[in-house]
Design brief:
Number of strands: 0
Order of helices and strands: HHHHHH
Keywords: Membrane, Transmembrane, Transmembrane helix
Organism: Secundilactobacillus pentosiphilus
Strand content: under 5%
Protein name: Holin
Structural class: mainly alpha
Helix content: over 70%
Number of helices: 6
């Protein structure tokens, strides 16, 4: 047996047989193990994505006054942050969008309290819009006369204290505005002391 092994080794046939076994059997097994480990890792990452997306969508579903586009952007940002904290960086935003949509479809297929409250909120918002439109259409146009006069420019003395300058400018502007309001009140025939 040793003699046969020696002959195979000396002739180079042993190396050829060994390379053949490595090429045909061992290397494919190693590659398959690597693919399997990689597939498991990817599957675990997407499983985590689904769970995080469901949690984020459920949380954002209770924010009734936030528009859906803003909710989607918040969900995308939150999920990306959560995945990064878990060390998962290989998932792109398209896959996150799909996970958000999947979680949204799941929650909309359920009859949840959040959906009932969101519908109630949306109905109230629509009613408020209708009432607001009614109120706007019934308000008469104001009777405003255009004035040709312009307020006098504010005179400010140079001072070393910029804070004092700002206060002086503000007081002068308020006085000018009050003067204009008083003139307008008198022009409309109103009584300032009433």
């Amino acid at each position: 047996m040793q003699h046969a092994f020696q002959v195979l080794s000396d002739s180079g046939l042993f190396d050829t047989i060994l390379m053949g076994i490595l090429t045909v059997v061992v290397i494919p097994l190693i590659q398959q193990g690597f693919k399997s480990a990689k597939t498991t890792k990817v599957a675990n990452a997407y499983g985590a994505l689904d769970k995080v997306a469901e949690g984020v969508v459920a949380k954002l579903a209770t924010q009734y006054d936030v528009p859906s586009g803003v909710k989607h952007d918040q969900a995308l940002q939150t999920i990306s942050t959560q995945l990064a904290k878990k060390g998962i960086k290989s998932i792109d935003t398209k896959d996150i969008d799909v996970a958000i949509e999947k979680a949204y479809q799941y929650f909309t297929s359920l009859d949840t309290k959040a959906q009932a409250k969101q519908n109630e909120f949306n109905d109230g918002l629509a009613n408020a819009d209708k009432e607001s439109q009614k109120a706007v259409t019934t308000v008469p146009e104001p009777n405003v006369e255009a004035k040709s006069e312009v307020a006098e420019p504010v005179k400010v003395e140079n001072s070393a204290d910029s804070e004092q300058d700002s206060l002086t400018k503000l007081r002068n502007a308020i006085a000018s505005a009050q003067k204009i309001l008083d003139e307008k009140e008198q022009a409309q025939g109103g009584d300032k002391n009433a």
